[in-house]
Input
Amino acid sequence: MTDYTDIGYGVADGIATITLNRPDALNAFTPAMCLETIDAFDRTDADDAVRVVIVTGAGRGFCAGADLSAGGDTFNPKTYGSSDPEPTRDGGGRTSLRIFESLKPVIAAINGPAVGVGLTMTLPMDIRLASDTAKFGFVFSRRGIVPEAGSSWFLPRLVGPSQAMEWCMTGRVFGADEALAGGLVRSVHPADELLDAATALAREVADNTSAVSVALARRLMWRGLTFDSPYRSHIADSRAMSVVGRGRDVVEGVTSFLEKRPPVFPDTVSTDLPDVFSDPQPSWAAQLPG
Output
C-alpha cells in the first residue's frame, strides 16, 4: 500500500512525517486511516534511512476521534458486518499497538483537537508536543463507551492512575496547559512553531545517536513497564550491553567522542538489532531475588 487516501507520508533527511489527512473532518479516524497508519509504520521500520517518525494532523485538527458518520451505530460491530459474539478487534488498538512496536522513536506534534482515539493513539508515541490551540479529551464516558486503543494500560503509566481516572471519568475536554501540567505533553508551542519544535527534537536524535541504541532503549523502557521488578530489566540491560559492547557502533561512538567529531554510526536496525528478551536466562540470573 503506497497510495494513501486518509494519511500523508513523506521522508526528508532521516525524518518521516505521517500526517492524518482528512482536514475537512478534523482528521476523524476511519478504518482506512487505521490500515494506512499501520502500513506507514511498516514502511518506517523497513527503511534504515528513517531515524525518527513525526505524526501530526492536516489543517486545524490533529484527530477529532472516531468518524461518527454512522451515528448511534458507529461503535456497533454489526455496522462493520460482524454478527459474531466474539469481540471484534478495536481498530484504535491495532493502530496503537503497531506504534508501540515501532523500531524508530515517534514524536506526536498535536496541532489541534485530539479527542478519543485521536488522543489514545498518541499514548504509545514517545514524546508529545502540543500547540497552544490544541484541545484534548478522553471523552469515552460521555459517549457511552470505554477507553480503547490500550489506553487503560498506557495512560496511567504516563500520567499516574489518579490523573488518568479523572480525565476518563469526567470525559471533559481540556486545554494544552492542563495537558502540560498533567504530564501528558512534553511542551506547548505557538501553533506556527509546533512542527519546527518537533523537527528540532527529531533532528537531535537523527544527527547524534545510534539507530540501534535508540531502538533498544525504546524497547527496554516500554517493555520494562511490564516487569515486576528491576531485576528483569537488569537481565535485559545486561544482554543488550553485552551485544552492543562488541559492536561497531560503540567503537564509532567512543572514537568520535575522543576525536571531537560528529559520529557516523554504521549499524542499522534492519540488520543489527538484537533480541534481548528471549530465553534462555543467563546463568547468573538464578542468583537474583525474585
